[in-house]
Design goal:
It contains 3 helices and 8 strands, in the order E-H-E-E-E-H-E-H-E-E-E. A hairpin with a 3-residue loop joins strand 3 and strand 4. The protein has helices spanning about 15-30, 60-70, 85-105; strands at about 1-10, 35-40, 40-45, 50-55, 75-80, 105-110, 115-120, 125-130.
Length: about 140
Amino acid sequence: MSISHELLLNTQNSIEYYVQNIEAIFKNKLNIGINTNRQSDCISLFCEYLTIYIHLDEYIGLDIIEEDYNFKANMSIRFYLIVKTWPKGMDTLFSLIKHLMFNNNDNLLLIENGETRILSRVDGIFYADAYFEQTYPFEIFEI
């Protein structure tokens, strides 16, 4: 069983840029081994705590994100956290997002299970819902 999160981005960077950054962050910053599987329609990266999917031609649903969250996205990265390792998976996810945020200035939006806004950064302004302060490890961001 898994819990899903989606990181939506408004970026000029390529999918390959993000794949390479994710691999480097896992290896050099988080010291976690990660495997990468490239297929014709998606790239998946996985470790013992979570699986990451980046669909290469996913544009369906991004217009709904704009309507529901007032956020224009052009890339989606999905994360599936394994329930039995959820605390470590969540720390890993937030640490990854922290490093991605500081590597570029892209606007981003993190939602849980396709509906709940957890955090966003738009035009350099970071927003996290205080309601989730006890559930998510926002302290990882050190802001």
